[in-house]
Amino acid sequence: MRVQFFRRLVLSCLLGCAALTAQAQTTWTVGIVPQFPPEQIFRTWSPILNALAALTGERFELRSFSSIPEFETAFLSGEVDLAYMNPYHAVMAYKAAGYVPIIRDGQRRLNGILVVRRDSPITEVRQLDGATIAFPAPNAFGASLYMRALLAKRERIDIVPVYVKTHSNVYRHVLTAQVEAGGGVRRTLERETPRLREQLRVLYQTPDTPPHPLAAHPRVPSAVRSEIQAAFLRLANQPETAALLAAVQIPKPVAASYQDYAALEELGLENFVETPD
Description:
Elements: H1 2-24, E1 27-32, H2 38-56, E2 59-63, H3 68-76, E3 82-84, H4 87-97, E4 100-105, E5 112-117, E6 132-135, H5 141-153, E7 160-163, H6 167-175, E8 181-185, H7 186-190, H8 194-197, E9 200-205, E10 213-216, H9 222-236, H10 239-247, E11 253-255
Parallel strand pairs: 1-2, 1-3, 6-7, 6-8
Antiparallel strand pairs: 3-10, 4-10, 4-11, 5-8, 5-9
């Protein structure tokens, strides 16, 4: 009887340890706003997530999205644990599911831009009244949402928007004269090849705002959020990993909070937001 008791006790301890190990190995899903093609996102973000895992002991799984509306559906319903999103997405995600920003770049601000071909006869934005303009998606913040609001409310022009999924697609639509202009942000334009950039010209830009944050769903414990913040800061101080942060547009990470983005609620963009079905 005593032997059986000890066997049961050992088995119980082993099962308990296994349960604790499984709990410690929670895999956090990470969604990235698809400004670029999926293969480019996996190429740039996978090394960052591997480095974060090494520093925190947490596990991360990168989720792929074919379009910005698909990404929006995921965070609005709370499907992903962590999400790298545009500034107005941070407002939408906070209100819909309680996501809170935890890290952002502290070096640069975000500017939406409107580009035309360098040889285009268009020299001022009001010449685009009635024009067809390419955007990544309706709610891409600087590249589309804020830009479309400014064109309508400040410049008082009507346009015909077409949505082509990514910033890269926007620039190529302009380059091949499929549209008269296109919306993007300076950072994504700077990541294009010199040959493409030299054939485009920035016609108009939005006022600057805080850049994209990495935000966490409320189910991610505060201790894990703090570990991720600290890990990003450590990566920035290590020469071998600093370049990885630049590749994901967070070259100088700083701790973020919703207060960084709350002022965007005052821009009056509600009438220009398109909620995914």
